[in-house]
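Could you join me in thinking about how sequence relates to backbone shape in a protein? Would you write everything just below, so we can both look at the same thing?
***
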Amino acid sequence: MNTHQRIKAIREWIYLGISVIISLFLIIFNDSSLNNTLSKIGLDAFSIINYDFFSLREKASLQNEIIQLKEKLVKLNQDKQNYEESFAENIRLRNLLSIELPDSLSFVYAKVTGEPASSLQNTILINAGSEKNVSDGEMVISENGFIGIITNAGKHISKVTLISDPNNKIPVITEIGKIPGIMKSIDHRTAEISEITKSQTVEIGEKIFTSDFSKLYHPGLLIGKVSSVSDSSATINKRVIIEYSADFLDVKDVFIIHKPEE
């Protein structure tokens, strides 16, 4: 017998006891005024006992319902968050798959793992390594373009050095004039292109891609757009500043480009 059944049985015995006592008094004292008084007392006692019992039971029931509703609300919020994350991931993957690259290249999909890049570091970790044939020197792209190079491929995790690393010198080419230059990072958002002479024309908003000047970098990968162009009186070259197309602090999904077999 559970607690609820025991309480119900006790209540019924109390009601029965009160009814028997009242009945005995009514039999012994056949007085209408006394009968009325006893009846009133009995009804008052019944209402008090009944009210208290049901009041406590209803409060307990309401508390249980509130707890259940809170649990359902937490689950619904979690489901909503999972749906929003899955929806955002689906969009990122669609954008990744829409990138136009030569059919001769093969790719490995990976997610950024651990802590994302910060303004104080120029590396990220991804959840793909040698077990997926990932090796050092392979290029990594996001949905918004070229972001870095594999510099330490482990079995399951690899380190990617971002193109925002100031030690990098990356050969690039402009979209319109096909003018070559060397890109060196300034910070996580911008970089400078050198070796472009004042006589050459570079337009603001023009896209910048990797060039085929070096075998380390596959040509034609988007890096960013020109944000400013100025002439320096001290040199024969222009000062070209670009903004990266990718936000390195918010990269979540990437493709590793396998090196073509020679």
Q: What stands out?
A: Residues 32-97 form the longest helix (66 residues).
